[in-house]
Amino acid sequence: MQISSGGATHVGMVRTNNEDCFRIVSPLNLFVLADGMGGEAHGEVASALAVETVVKHCIEGEENPSAALLGEAKPGLTPKSRRLLSAIHLANQKVFQSAEEHPERQGMGATLTTAWIDGSQLSVGHVGDSRVYLLRTGQLQQLTSDHSLVAEQVRRGLLTATEAEQSNLQSVLLRALGTQAQVEVDVEEVGLFPGDVLLLCSDGLTRMVTEPEIAGTLQAEPIPQRAAEKLVQLANESGGIDNVTVIVVSFRPEPKGWFSWLRRGAQKSEGGNGSAGGK
User: Fold this and answer.
1) What is d(CA 182, CA 227) in angstroms, rounded to the nearest whole number?
2) Is 153 within 8 Å of 159 (Cβ atoms)?
3) Contact criterion met (CB below 8 Å) for 234 and 204
4) pTM score, two decimals?
5) Residue 2 CB: number of other CB atoms within 10 A?
6) Which of 180, 214, 235, 256 is deepest in the core (most CB within 10 A)?
7) How far apart are CA 150 and CA 164, in angstroms?
8) CATH number for the domain including 185?
9) Would you give the distance in Å from CA 10 to the centre of its chain?
10) Which domain holds residue 65?
11) Distance CA 109, CA 45 (A)
């Protein structure tokens, strides 16, 4: 498959600083997104530290596959999923230690959502309420579970999805990066097919734009960078009450014919690497 990607971030229409951060590492097909929390407690520092830690750890693992892994091993995972799990545990340590060492940063934390593609295999690592979606044959499927109070209440049948969307407790997280010395990390593995579209986003998108609108935009705009920018624009047009960050990744069939060898193995990324927050 040919992989194309793009990303965009914006402070939104209400906030004065952007606590989101993202990186697209095209040579590794690695995508990382974090949403900092803590406001004056330097949420932008937490998100940037988390993203850079994950990227560095994954790159080191590619260069030295025998490099030590952190966290409790989960049986049955692929090597990339194990490395991703380790990277997120390390990021949690780094953010937690930074807050411990700098009193003015106490209380900071971040969500962290990551996707690592190896051929037709997708590894997803996740903590918090940023999300990963998969668009396949027109159907949008959420691959991650929100680690938030209202999401847990919906899962237990205490709230309806509509009541959760209207709740003023949407921002209350049950699990986040850097708030405790240890964190539980969700890891999922999914097979990919040509025509799939992957979306990573902060809650600044999902609180402003409905899933049908998201799916429609991804279907209408085949160029990932433009799709990411359009989704950010839609969030701001709907009120933009929070920072909004979007990464879009598309998977197309490998072209057939005499010229296919020219493109085989090429990594195309319209968006390139990018980040916001903590700089």
Assistant:
1) 36
2) yes
3) no
4) 0.88
5) 16
6) 235
7) 6
8) 3.60.40.10
9) 15
10) 2-263
11) 9
